[in-house]
């Protein structure tokens, strides 16, 4: 009996230990499961915070990075267009240097010079250094527009844009000014068709009609086409003010005809005198032959001696005072020509208006434009 009791006790102790171990293991497992996500998160955070040796961190932005991009200085003396041009240039420099937004005002004001620097100094003293440099880039641009783009100046530029015209053959200056005013007054050219129509209205009639007939799709095509047509007009002398090149407006009176005729008359008189002298000599010689044959040698000797003694006759050279001066240029009155009101453009070859695909009216007989061969007034049928 005692042996059985001891055995049962041992068995109960073993079972109690096993149950206790299971409870401890379950508790440990539960705690480990709870701690595993936290451990994993900490491991990930530690691995991300550590940078490898081959990866370099980007340095902080400094003013020398902005200065290395060679920013455009601003003096405040070029008017509205210079201000807008500086805005575009400095924004490009911001992108190139990677300038942050909170540092743009500081970098932009560092390139002020002359009048602009005086204005910014007064503005900084009025607002305070901290408040002045705390302004955003858009706020700084608004202040600069109020200072350098007053309403009356903008009104002058808008009036100029309404009345802009090309001056004779200077198409390059007209196009450059048109682009400047387009940036300053965008409301007048807010649509592509509106901009093209306004640009064509400012061109000369001989250039604008051709550009309008071509119907450019963009304003850049209108710029290029107008430049090509204008160069051809300038090369042909259409815009020239020299009356010598304008055959329809002036002619040159040739006054050399009198001097030529006078010289021809002088030569004719000299030749007639030589011929008369020769004929008189021959007649005298014949009379000597008829009178007596013995006096032939004496007559011949006398004529040869007279010829040797007689000096050679030369043409009289006109003096400087006798040379006729050319008459001044006389302008031919230009008759009023009725303007063309049709829809066809003016041809650059024959200077007449006809459809673009049609050929020019050219005469093969007189080699002139404006009429055909069968209608020529100098043809064989006339």
What is the strand and helix layout of this fold?
Layout: H1 2-49, H2 63-67, H3 79-97, H4 104-109, H5 114-127, H6 129-133, H7 137-148, H8 151-162, H9 171-184, H10 192-201, H11 205-214, H12 219-235, E1 250-251, H13 256-291, H14 296-309, E2 330-331
Helix pairs in contact: 3-7, 8-9, 11-12, 13-14
Care to count the β-strands? 2
Strand order of the largest sheet: 1-2
How much of the polypeptide forms β-strand, as a percent range? under 5%
Query: Overall pLDDT, averaged?
Result: 74
Rg for CA atoms: 52 Å
- Helical residue percent? 55-70%
Q: Could you describe the largest sheet, including whether it forms a barrel?
A: 2 strands, antiparallel
Helix and strand composition category:
mainly alpha
Shape: elongated
| Span between termini | 166 Å
Low-confidence stretches: 243-309
Order of helices and strands: HHHHHHHHHHHHEHHE
Assembly of the depicted chains: single chain
Number of helices: 14
Q: Your description of this structure?
A:
The relative contact order is 0.04. Helices cover 58% and strands 1% of the residues. It has a two-stranded antiparallel ribbon with strand order 1-2. With 382 residues, the chain is mostly helical. The protein is built from 14 helices and 2 strands; from the N terminus they run H-H-H-H-H-H-H-H-H-H-H-H-E-H-H-E.
Task: Give a brief description.
This protein is mainly α. The chain has 14 helices and two strands. Helix 8 crosses helix 9 (171-184).
Output the keywords:
about 375 residues, single chain, two-stranded antiparallel sheet, about 60% helix, mainly alpha
